[in-house]
Write a structure and sequence with these properties.
By secondary structure, the chain is mostly helical. Helices cover 80% and strands 0% of the residues. α3 runs antiparallel to α5. The longest helix is centred in the N-terminal third of the chain and has 37 residues. It starts with a helix and ends in an 8-residue tail after the last helix.
């Protein structure tokens, strides 16, 4: 991976850092929305006010958060090039794990 990094020029590195920062902001926003939704529904559950509508809303937030996280990873993965695609790459492994988790049955519109 270090050898591949040496082939990147300063402009490509700066662009990748910007993309990373943009995707990190998107991810952080989705994560905050997710945790807020979980906390709200947990409080509702504890107070006996959790209904099907609220569960549907929570499910929608979970799906949207998962989609955003996966899309952030795709944007970065595409930018990293061939080194990231190699099966032995840690980036590839993390991407595959995230992609698999994002396809879980609990996160589908069935």
């Amino acid at each position: 991976m270090e050898h591949a990094k040496s082939r990147w020029n300063a402009e490509k590195i700066a662009g990748t850092v910007r993309l990373l920062q943009e995707q990190q902001t998107r991810f952080n926003d989705a994560e905050q929305l997710f945790h807020t939704a979980i906390d709200r529904r947990w409080d509702m559950h504890l107070n006996g006010r959790l209904d099907d509508h609220e569960l549907d809303q929570l499910s929608a937030v979970c799906m949207e958060s998962s989609n955003i996280a996966t899309d952030c990873a795709v944007q970065l993965f595409r930018r990293l090039g061939m080194q990231a695609v190699l099966e032995t790459s840690p980036v590839n492994r993390a991407f595959r794990d995230l992609w698999t988790a994002g396809q879980h049955g609990f996160l589908s519109h069935s």
